[in-house]
Amino acid sequence: MLRAVFREDRCKGCSLCVVACPEKIIEINNEKLNEKGYYPAGMTHPEKCIACGMCVTACPDLAIEVKEVK
């Protein structure tokens, strides 16, 4: 199954992926800081991801990729 995978260590919390997601399942985690001191983005319902790649295209930090997950 293809799904968007987030690299929290690269995310700067810009929210561009949140806006780009057609399924509206990405949000910023305001309770967890990454190593760089940013609140990273992540999926609220990964099972609803359609692997469209819109979030990947929107991310300026290469923090997201669509790949096969088990």
Write structural notes for this entry.
- There is one protein chain.
- The chain has 70 residues and is an alpha+beta fold.
- It has a single domain (2-68), classed as Alpha-Beta Plaits, CATH 3.30.70.
- The protein has two helices and four strands.
- The chain has helices spanning 16-20, 54-58, and strands spanning 2-6, 26-28, 41-43, 64-68.
- The longest helix is centred in the first third of the chain and has 5 residues, at 16-20.
- The chain is globular and about 30 Å long.
- The mean pLDDT is 97.
| Domain unit count | 1
User: Looking across the biggest beta sheet, what order are the strands in?
Assistant: 1-4
Estimate the mean pLDDT confidence: 97
The parts where pLDDT drops under 50 for at least 5 residues are none
Element order, helices and strands? EHEEHE
- The Cα radius of gyration reads 11 Å
Proportion of residues in extended strands = 15-25%
Distance between the termini: 7 Å
The global form is globular
The CATH class designation is Alpha Beta
Count of DSSP-assigned helices: 2
How many strands in all?
Answer: 4
Features:
23% strand, 70 residues, 2 helices, alpha+beta
Helices and strands in order, then pairings?
Layout: E1 2-6, H1 16-20, E2 26-28, E3 41-43, H2 54-58, E4 64-68
Antiparallel strand pairs: 1-4, 2-3
